[in-house]
UniProtKB/TrEMBL annotation:
It comes from Methanomethylophilus alvi (strain Mx1201). The keyword Transferase applies. Keywords: Magnesium, Metal-binding, Nucleotidyltransferase, Transferase. SUPFAM superfamilies: Nucleotide-diphospho-sugar transferases. It comes from the Archaea. This is glucose-1-phosphate thymidylyltransferase. Its EC number is 2.7.7.24.
Length: 299
């Protein structure tokens, strides 16, 4: 299974923070934002990952992430010349995907919750068997998102992009697991009024073919689209509070790799040195040296 992190766009809602840098490189407490979606794909067991970003920012991601070997994975890079829709990621990544099933996560999405690892692994298995999965989450402002519509028995019967009158408060989050047909289906999408290849239209194709599963996340689960000042602060506060309360950070790609035996203790110690005297470097050293009773599974 392949994975894509879409880290493009201009991030205008975060101006002036993003005038000179990518939104996905902004800090969310102790890590760059892109570490969080990257960790989600790694938690799903995906080790072949494509980063898509803008022509001006792609070099910064290469400098930060390299070839992925620090995380026990392989990272490739492609450029999205202009933000022409989320579904465009699969067309840009066609050679990378090579006809395999593929997951897509948006570079500004942060997920955390109990049993999430199991949900991710299940979504991978389903996609490889021809059943695609998206995730729904209840929000106060569904008008900003793609919204899931249900019938009287709770079955998903529709998905609508940024509706004026939403038919539910469940939005579609920025995490998608698709089967091997995703590139072919993406090529059939007609640009919307915004002149974008909408991910909602791709989801509708799968829904029409009765091969789309919507996994609903409840309020005990945490999800942020960190594209606004408020959500960026809320996500940072959550990661900070979790660390203070438990002694563990969340969505650390180095720790995910270490927990899954993709990198060795020696590699973790070397990575801790890379980050100098920072608390994050000290944290990786603590994990590598086993100062906790066991490897943490709550990432």
């Amino acid at each position: 299974m392949k994975g894509i992190v879409l880290a493009g766009g201009s991030g205008t809602r975060l101006y002036p923070l993003t005038v000179s840098t990518s939104k996905q490189l902004l800090p969310v407490y102790d890590k760059p934002m892109v570490f969080y979606p990257l960790s989600v794909l790694m938690e799903a067991g995906i080790r072949d990952i494509l980063i898509i970003s803008t022509p001006s920012d792609i070099g910064k991601f290469k400098q930060l992430l390299g070839d992925g070997s620090d995380f026990g994975i392989k990272i490739s890079y492609e450029v999205q010349p202009s933000p022409d829709g989320l579904a465009q990621a699969f067309i840009i990544g066609e050679k990378f995907i090579e006809g395999d099933a593929c997951a897509l996560i948006l570079g500004d999405n942060l997920f955390h919750g109990n049993d999430f690892n199991h949900m991710l692994r299940e979504a991978v298995i389903d996609a490889e068997r021809g059943k695609s999965t998206i995730f729904g989450y209840p929000v106060k402002n569904p008008q900003r998102f793609g919204v899931v519509e249900f019938d009287s028995e709770g079955n998903v019967i529709g998905i609508e992009e940024k509706p004026v009158c939403p038919k539910s408060d469940y939005c579609v989050t920025g995490l998608y697991f698709y089967d091997k047909n995703v590139v072919d289906y993406s090529k059939t999408i007609v640009p919307s009024k915004r002149n974008e290849l909408e991910i909602t239209d791709l989801n509708r194709i799968y829904l029409k073919k009765k091969s789309l599963k919507v996994n609903l996340l409840d309020k005990s689960f945490k999800w942020w689209d960190t594209g606004t000042f408020d959500s960026l602060i809320e996500a940072s506060d959550y990661v900070h509070d979790h660390y203070v309360r438990t002694g563990y950070t969340i969505n650390s790609p180095e720790q995910v790799a270490f927990n899954q035996d993709w990198i060795s203790k020696e590699k973790m110690l070397a990575l801790s040195v890379r980050y100098g005297n920072s608390p994050y470097g000290a944290y990786l050293k603590k994990i590598a040296e086993g100062k906790s009773n066991e490897k943490n599974n709550d990432n």
